[in-house]
Amino acid sequence: MAGADGGKREGNLEAPTRHPLNWRDPSFYDAHALEQELERVFDICHGCRRCFSLCQSFPTLFDAIDASATGELDGVDKRAYWQVVDHCYLCDMCYMTKCPYVPPHPWNLDFPHLMLRAKAVRAASGGTRFRDRLLSATDTVGNIAGIPVVAQLVNAVNASKVGRKLLASTLGVHPEAPLPKYESRTARARLRNMPPPAAAVQSTAETTGRVVLFTTCYGNRNEPDLATDLAAVFAHNGIELKLAESERCCGMPKLELGDLEAVARLKEHNIPQLKRLVEQGYDIVAPIPSCVLMFKQELPLMFPEDADVKLIKSRIFDPFEYLMLRHKAGLLRTDFKAQLGSVSYHVPCHLRVQNIGLKTRDVLKLVPGTSIDVIERCSGHDGTYALKSEFREASVKIGRPVMQKVEKAAANHYASDCPMAGHQIESGLPEGAREPEHPLKLLRMAYGI
């Protein structure tokens, strides 16, 4: 196995560390150096194979090796390398939960960031498909599709068989993939007159009790209830909420495409907006795990010397992480009016890799008469992966264990912190099954507000 002479032990018992992404260095985009690193890492993965059950990248690699003339990596056509790259959607689960060779292990293996490097090399060389650039342009698509008459037309087309066939033939969007609806009245418009806190704002050792809501592209244009439910719950708990003057996409869709320059441009808009509010005493909350992860992990790794990025990293929270910190200080209200019964709760990958524990479960467990069945497996949605015709079958295969658990449980509710994952699960349930409900909506129901 390549690199074996550099390893002093089979596994790694030390806490993993993440190296900054050296994406500004010209050597990062050296195609030959990239191929050599792909060979080194793929050979280590071949000798280990612990990640076979995660995404489709690893089975694709292992099947290519097993089918080769030599049965080793040297017999694999280099074109198969790019199939492995295409199946990686940067969930980070291999790095965080499976791989024994991540730094500080001397083999220094970071599979997701290697896949990101490969995507960046392709993007920089102009090899990204128009379909992929369009699907990741969330601000542009949302602004157009959110125009009142246009929103109705887009939703009608997306819901029709003819429209789905057209999307399949022109953009390669699978006819059965769940597509988000567009709302002409955005979350930011709905929250211009936010409810005031139910009590005087109190700070704690870890929270200020004053929060700026980063609504996110999806929460703003597709499911504004995410923001309004969060606003109602936070107001009920004496937390002041406000919006940034403006916001743009967090950058995760462009990151998953390898368009790092686009990520940098989005960062240059968002970080100054958020910094001003943090300096005024506000914390930050976003209702989509991927967006929180972008500010907590990916931007700090891309811009390790940027003090403003570090500041935002230190003050951004998942909503339920924030509520549990308030509960820790005795400031979370438990005057629940309704029981939730049984809940099948799916934990998204981008929430799991934040290493904050199961805060959503912990909050919902405070509701009397509520039982939580936690599902810690990938739903298979993963950004735009599940939308694309060439990946739809693989995405359903990945998500099927989650779908089967939800169906078998027949709980009163099923939920995911990622609304897109919730709809992916819904797409694998029997026709007529109830729709997913976001945990924020469940908490609002429990409060009776």
Shape: globular
Uncertain runs: 1-7
> What does the largest sheet look like?
4 strands, parallel
CATH architecture of the largest domain: 3-Layer(aba) Sandwich
Overall tally of domains: 4
Write out the strand line-up for the largest beta sheet, numbering strands in chain order.
Answer: 2-1-3-4
Strand fraction: 5-15%
Model description:
With 449 residues, this protein is of the alpha/beta class. It has four domains: 121 residues, no CATH class; 42 residues, no CATH class; 140 residues, Rossmann fold; 112 residues, Rossmann fold, CATH 3.40.50. 49% of the residues lie in helices and 6% in strands. The chain has 22 helices and seven strands. The strands form two sheets. Strands 2-1-3-4 form a four-stranded parallel beta sheet, with helices on both faces. The protein is globular. The protein starts with 30 loop residues before the first helix and ends with a helix. The N terminus is likely disordered.
